[in-house]
Amino acid sequence: MDSFIELKKVSVLRGNRKILDDINLNISSSENVAVIGPNGSGKSTFIKLITGKIYPSYTGNGTVCRLFERRRWNIHDLRSMLGIVTNELQYDFYNEITGFEAVLSGFFSSIGISNNHAVTKEMIRKAGDMIDFLDVSSLKDKKIETMSSGEARRFLIARSLVNSPKVLVLDEPSNSLDISSSLKLHNTMRKISDSGTKIILVTHLVSDIIPEMDRFVFFKDGKIFADGKRSEIFTGDRLSSLFDMEVRLDENNGLCWIRAV
Ligand SMILES: Nc1ncnc2c1ncn2[C@@H]1O[C@H](COP(=O)(O)OP(=O)(O)O)[C@@H](O)[C@H]1O
Ligand SMILES: [Mg+2]
Questions:
Q1: The pLDDT value given to residue 1
Q2: Which of 27, 61, 181, 258 is most buried (CB neighbours < 10 A)?
Q3: CA atoms of 58 and 11, how far apart (whole Å)
């Protein structure tokens, strides 16, 4: 198996609280996975763990935390395997950086471009291709801080793709997007999945789910509450127990939504 993450007996402690509690999970780099859970269930902490930003709070006693089969990573090397887009990332670029520069700096894992970056023609070409792929060419000279959330998010996704990562991790990507931007994002995720990069989509919104998601992992109170194939897990009953309220799940034309019943 082409392993992306291997977690055994992983817990993350903050203060005296376990915000991730005994996580056991394997994800290969050939599956699209939706990670769903209520606010505060530990999803973003899980992302920090699977992107090498934090480590488990305990080691020993059988604890395993490997990314792409390695225990430790140089963050720079990891970036060529793994793209990450979080909402906080957008604010890092609020410094006169244009959309194009934000994408180009993805090659260096930096925030913008400076004189000591050896930018090649190939990098410029690839950055342009990714901007086209995200359908935002007309905005490339605009500063990130002057863009709408939806526009900025598209540039950050383009940035995360310049190194052709095996896996793209998206944390609540439709946060603060209006309905039309959310739909565009939906189509973008489908295109990315078609292009061969696998997506780990972390969300509390069922409407973010694309048909290409084949596995679902539910988080609740820092624990894995359910994990399995779409047909087994992604049902109204399972979502009702996840969110502690009775909901109905509807799907039509590749779009999903839930409502209280
Ligand atoms: N660095 C931290 N210190 C203390 N508590 C934290 C820290 N990070 C997250 N938490 C808490 O852990 C819980 C899970 O947080 P988070 O992973 O952000 O959840 P989610 O992304 O599912 O909303 C929340 O109750 C949050 O307040
Ligand atoms: Mg979160």
A1: 60
A2: 27
A3: 7
**Placement of tokens 């291997």 in the chain:** 6
Counting ligands in written order, which one lies closest to the CA of residue 38? 1
Q: Which residues line the pocket of ligand 1, CB cutoff 6 A?
A: 14, 19, 37, 39-45
Q: Atom 13 in ligand 1: which residue has the minimum CA distance? A: 40
Please name which ligand lies nearest the alpha carbon of 86: 2
Q: Ligand 1 centroid vs 15 CA: distance in angstroms? A: 11
Q: What is the distance between the alpha carbons of residues 225 and 57, in angstroms, rounded to a whole number?
A: 21
Write the residue with the smallest CA distance to atom 17 of ligand 1.
42
Write the pLDDT tens digit of every residue in 120-165.
999 999 999 999 999 999 999 999 999 999 999 999 999 999 999 9
Amino acid of residue 33:
V
Cα(186)–Cα(129) distance, integer angstroms = 20
**Computed from CA positions of residues 20, 22, 27, 33, in that sequence, does the dihedral angle turn out positive or negative?**
negative
188: Cβ contacts below 8 Å, ≥ 6 apart: 134, 135, 154, 157
Ligand approaching nearest to the C-alpha of 223: 1
Residue 82 CA, ligand 2 centroid: distance in Å:
19
> What dotted CATH number matches 1-75+210-261?
3.40.50.300
Model confidence band, residue 75 (pLDDT cutoffs 50, 70, 90): confident
Q: 167-171 and 198-203 as β-strands: parallel, antiparallel, unpaired?
A: parallel
The residue to mutate among 14, 20, 219, having the most atoms of ligand 1 within 8 angstroms of its beta carbon, is 14
Compute the residue count for the chain: 261
How large is the C-alpha radius of gyration of the chain?
18
